[in-house]
Design a protein that fits this description.
The protein is an alpha/beta fold. The protein contains 8 helices and 7 strands, in the order αβαβββββαβααααα. A hairpin with an 8-residue loop joins β2 and β3. α6 crosses α7. The chain starts with 13 loop residues before the first helix and ends in an 18-residue tail after the last helix.
């Protein structure tokens, strides 16, 4: 599709298929004046962007025009892509206005990856993938009739299957490291696979690596907060009784 920042391989989860079928049902049952906006959310790192790419590929392969809006997580400029029906290469732009007229066609699908849609008042179906954020809840308040769906966390079996089926770097991770990382991070593949990759080649258990990393980060934060508290108590005597702040671990983590 010409969007190389996603890589060249995609693990299709059963939930992706369920979502595709659910969206097809919504489209078939929608009335002429029904809300055609669907927000799909979920834990950061769960694979919402890859699910959006999967849906885009399905729509294009079945002869549907797709306008794809991409919001990078690093804060760089957003991008827009236009994929004609049955195309394998999209047209790219850094301004939404270049492709906005396509969203006035009810047969188009408008997909948004990583945020809320920028193109105003689309006539076509709009499927927006976004992590939970303040803007998402404001949008839902303003559009109470819009649909809100959630992608589930991954199971350990899904993570192991993904490990074996995608690129060589991930498939080289051991079953043990992925299992240990899953016990720590749960069903979030971005975190689990990164922890397993950091552990590769090390004799230290994954949990010990995570504890050391968290311990260093918390102590650094504690030092910064204590310094700020001391300065604040000096500037505002009587408002802050203690000039230091103590942080305690409530659990092992």
């Amino acid at each position: 599709m010409g969007m190389l920042h996603y890589g060249r391989q995609l693990y299709v989860r059963p939930s992706y298929l369920q979502l595709r079928n659910r969206l097809a049902q919504l489209s078939q049952n929608a009335g002429p004046y029904g809300d055609k906006t669907v927000m799909i959310t979920g834990t950061p790192g769960i694979g919402k962007s890859f699910c959006a790419i999967y849906l885009a590929t399905c729509f294009i392969a079945h002869g549907t025009r797709v306008v794809y809006e991409f919001h990078p997580i690093n804060g760089s400029a957003s991008s827009w892509y236009h994929f004609p029906p049955y195309s394998c290469q999209g047209f790219h732009s850094y301004h939404w206005g270049e492709f906005a007229f396509h969203t006035r066609d009810a047969d188009t699908v408008y997909l948004v990856d990583g945020g809320l849609p920028w193109i105003p008042s689309p006539v076509c179906w709009c499927y927006a993938f976004s992590s939970p954020q303040r803007g998402l809840y404001r949008w839902q308040t303003k559009s109470p009739s819009a649909h809100l769906m959630f992608l589930p966390l991954w199971t350990l079996d899904e993570l192991q299957a993904c490990r074996l089926s995608v690129d060589a770097f991930i498939s080289a991770l051991s079953t043990q490291s992925v299992t240990e990382a899953y016990e720590i991070a749960g069903g979030v593949p971005r975190t689990v696979l990164q922890l397993a990759a950091d552990w590769r080649g090390s004799d230290i258990p994954v949990k010990d690596l995570v504890i050391d990393t968290l311990d260093t980060a918390v102590r650094k934060l504690s030092s910064q907060v204590s310094s700020a508290a001391a300065e604040l108590s000096y500037l505002t005597p009587g408002l802050i009784e203690h000039r230091s702040l103590h942080m305690f671990y409530m659990t092992l983590w």
